Amino acid sequence: MGYVDYGPVRSEGYATGRDETTILEDSTSPALPTAGTTPEPTLLPTPTPAPANATVHIGFHDIFIEGEYLTVRSEPLIMTGFIRWKVGYPIGDEEHNCGAFDTGKFILDNRCDVRLPYICEIPEAP
């Protein structure tokens, strides 16, 4: 079980967010405590209210097979228990492959190169 890191919010493409998450999961990263140590408590900034039309990248895609949506853990999206597509989505083409969430509480598929804030999960230390 981990937690969702909401800050700092930056606008990046899906691949950048995925790559930076991979870096955070690297056990040599100073951002993660090592075995046998106690992490220092960190205060997260107070979230800024999202604009009415905000969309963020989240961890699912259909990059490998069109229409087969997988989480960043390679699990089928349907296993998350949340499949509430925005009207008109998903878009069944080769350009809209990266998952997003909007303030209307819907998921959608965006182009992966669209610069949006992203939300990633940082796992707890063992």
Automatic annotation (TrEMBL):
<protein>
    <submittedName>
        <fullName>Lectin-related protein</fullName>
    </submittedName>
</protein>
<feature type="region of interest" description="Disordered">
    <location>
        <begin position="12"/>
        <end position="50"/>
    </location>
</feature>
<dbReference type="InterPro" id="IPR016187">
    <property type="entry name" value="CTDL_fold"/>
</dbReference>
<feature type="compositionally biased region" description="Low complexity">
    <location>
        <begin position="30"/>
        <end position="41"/>
    </location>
</feature>
<dbReference type="InterPro" id="IPR016186">
    <property type="entry name" value="C-type_lectin-like/link_sf"/>
</dbReference>
